[in-house]
Amino acid sequence: MVKQMVAYVSTLVLLLITDSYSFVQFEHTCSALKQCTSNTENYFDKWADPKDTSDINYYNEHHSIHQEVFYPINLPLLPILFARSEYLPNGQCKEDSRLFFNELRNETLWAVQMFDSSSKYPDGILYGNTRHLGNFDECYNLQVDVRENSGNDKITGRYCLVDLQYQRKNASVSRNIVRKPFISDFDPKGTFWDAIEERGNPYRIRRYFLQLALCVPSACSAEDVETVLKSSIETINKNNNIEIQITVDKNFCQAAVEASNSVAGERIYW
């Protein structure tokens, strides 16, 4: 019962995949990457662009299991959303991001590595598991020569932590202290927002605040990541009874190439 509740909340409010259940099924029913990727073109192409999620007929046909409960909130995987976003500024960041997406569809190792190191499906939110950190080293150490495919010599990874805060729209939340630190203390037949929203209890983890990892090409800055995600999320905010805020701290958006340059500068200085 608890696992079902966690899956419900995660899928409803966390925005990382258009239909998490079908993607998990998609992964588990494939015995090898080759078999999976033979059918990924339609899957990724359909849901990569935020505008495509408005196609209700397609959604009803291919995602009927969750259409009544989960349709109001539907967003592609975070790394796919970023790479295919119409809000990416023209320049190297956009070129490298598009290349990443194309190479991901082609099963190219470096692109799969970038995708693999990003957060995808958060779990255990009701139990306070709000930090989903992906794999720092896998992203940070990524480096590939792409001279034949791009104007840039190399693509390297940038590991960013994306802070996501969400709440109901127009909701009157009581600030009276309710000392219920555990999910088992709440009425299981009540709304899940009771377990999510702030009630003034200083001992509870803020379940409405999430930290997610995103690996992008190092040509993309922290500002690029924040701007693109904010713009994409805005459509969700307008069309649903939920308000989502995205922030990306440049101090937590790191690339090895910048660290190397910094070390070189320090050596010259000293």
Summarize this, please?
With 270 residues, the protein is of the alpha+beta class. Helices cover 43% and strands 16% of the residues. Strand 2 (143-145) and strand 3 (154-168) form a beta hairpin.
What does the model show?
- By secondary structure, this protein is α+β, with helices and mostly antiparallel strands.
- It is 43% helix and 16% strand.
- Strands 1, 2, 3, 4 and 5 form a 5-stranded mixed beta sheet that branches.
- α8 (92-105) crosses α9 (109-116).
- The chain is elongated, with a radius of gyration of 20 Å.
Specify the overall morphology. Answer: elongated
Oligomer: single chain
Name the beta content range: 15-25%
Radius of gyration: 20 Å
Count every helix, treating DSSP H or I runs of 4 or more residues as helices: 13
Low-confidence stretches: 1-44, 46-74, 263-270
Structural class: alpha+beta
Helix percent band: 40-55%
Number of DSSP strand runs: 5
> What's the SSE pattern?
HHHHHHHHHEHEEHEHEH
Determine the N-to-C terminus distance: 60 Å
Largest sheet: 5 strands, mixed
Mean pLDDT, all residues:
70
